[in-house]
Amino acid sequence: MEAKMLQTKQSGKIQHSNSKGLEKLSPDEMRMLDRSVINYLDWKDFQLLNDEQLSVLGELLHQDKDRVSPFYFTIPPFVLGPLPQKSFEDNHFSRQFRWQEIHYSNTLGQAIPSGSSARLLMLHIITSVTQTKSNAVDLKSTTPDLIRALGIKPSYGEKGTVDKFEETLYQLLHTIIELRTRRTIENGEEVVEEIRFPIFRHDRMVLDAKGLIRGTAYLDDQFSNMILQSQVILDKKAVIELSKSRSPAALDLYIWATYANFYLCKSQKPLLTLTWDEAFELFSSGDVEKRMFKRDFKVKLGLVTKVYPQLRLLPQDKSITLWRTAPHVQLKAQ
After folding, report:
1. What is the pLDDT of residues 196-236, one digit of tens each?
2. Residue 244 burial (10 A CB sphere; 0-12, 13-18, 19+)
3. Which listed site, 6, 50, 124, 231, has its alpha carbon 20 to 30 Å from 186?
4. DSSP 153-174
5. CA–CA gap between residue 51 and residue 97 (Å, rounded)
6. Is residue 106 classed as helix, strand or coil in its secondary structure?
7. Order of strands across the sheet with 92-97?
8. Could you tell me the pTM of the whole model?
9. What is the SS3 assignment for 190-201?
């Protein structure tokens, strides 16, 4: 056992004072980890663990309702091409940002998933794949259980969370994603790469009387492979707080700022700038006129800085500048 491991007097379980070295533990040693260790895990830790260790970690995370990961994960396509913020009756929806275009469609000709419920479900799906390295996602046996797993309380009635999440889950089951990415090859020619896939595998889908998946659902292989290629870690508490604000735009802004700052840290670049036109494309709800967008953006930024106080995002006359800071979620040393 490494020097940085010690026994807790209360439980006798192994407690990790610094998460470096976690990948050297055997599966049996990992099963003895104190809950506090799990709360300190970062995306770097997940990347170092092998399949067996990740499987044990998954057992610990889902052992009981108190063992819930404090993190969510997302991937670049959904940062740069978020779902509609408000109810969107059309069965097609697109966003374009610089070199990427993402297009959502519904195979049943119904509405595209929207709002905070769609974002929370997508984050739950992406996080599950990231942590277990499997395309199998636990959607629980009932909708209230699924909502609790997302970190919020279920409520009933016309405006309750249960009906909304059931509607959103039904829409996600029949959503197709098309991703187009432009890039320049060696001779200077611009090429467009296109991929198209459903979120879920319909050949392994078992539905209940409402047409919803219960228990284990399986993602399309292209989608799960995309998730495993690149993830960005988010603070789950911040995501939940912003979802309660009933402002999907604020949630999109938090996710983008966390993602962008992560890559500024990775590339060691000092800042990143968006034009107001680019910001409008990313964060507009569709019902805010362009001339009113700046004021609306600053309101949403105020919500984000409450949960992400170290964020340095400065609105200016012609652009928005994000200055590099420490990642919002990082390793905590005792």
Report:
1. 999 998 877 777 888 888 888 899 999 999 888 877 889 88
2. exposed
3. 231
4. ----STTSHHHHHHHHHHHHHT
5. 35
6. strand
7. 92-97, 100-106, 175-184, 190-198
8. 0.76
9. EEEEEEEEECEC
